[in-house]
Amino acid sequence: MAKANPARTCPVAAFQKMISGKYKLRIVWDLKDGPRRYGEIRSGLLRGTEGSAEITPRVLSRELKALTATGLIDRKDFGEVPPKVEYRLTRKGKSFVPVVAAIRDWGDRHLTEAAAFVDAAE
What total of structural domains would you count in the chain? Predict the structure, then answer.
């Protein structure tokens, strides 16, 4: 008997697989306000991060390709030189924004509790 694929049988596992990655949720959140070019997305990801960690172009490209493959974002190439490419949320991606907003709201409410717990443990 073949083993069932958990991503097919469990919606939570499928969701987790779709949004796994360090930057996907933040990319979707940044695109909620409208289309962005690659450099704007990269700059948006660097805001609000601690330290000087920067996202590498390879990682950002991989995350954007994965989000495109899942149908959450759309890539529009204008066919110009120098290259001009925009990313925007699809209808499916727009329906995902309230989920990210709920995660953000939960973080706003509970982040100070978690930070206090981590500080106390150290």
Answer: 1
Q: Is residue 6 part of a domain?
A: no
Give 10 or 118, the one with higher predicted confidence: 10
pTM of the model: 0.78
- Cα gap 80→57, rounded to integer Å: 20
DSSP assignments along 73-105, one per residue: EEEEE---SS--EEEEE-HHHHHHHHHHHHHHH
Q: How do beta strands 85-89 and 36-37 pair?
A: antiparallel
Q: Is residue 5 part of a domain?
A: no
Asked if residue 2 is part of any domain, the answer here is: no
At residue 38, the pLDDT reads: 93
Which of 118 and 106 is assigned the larger pLDDT? 106
Residue 76 included in any domain:
yes
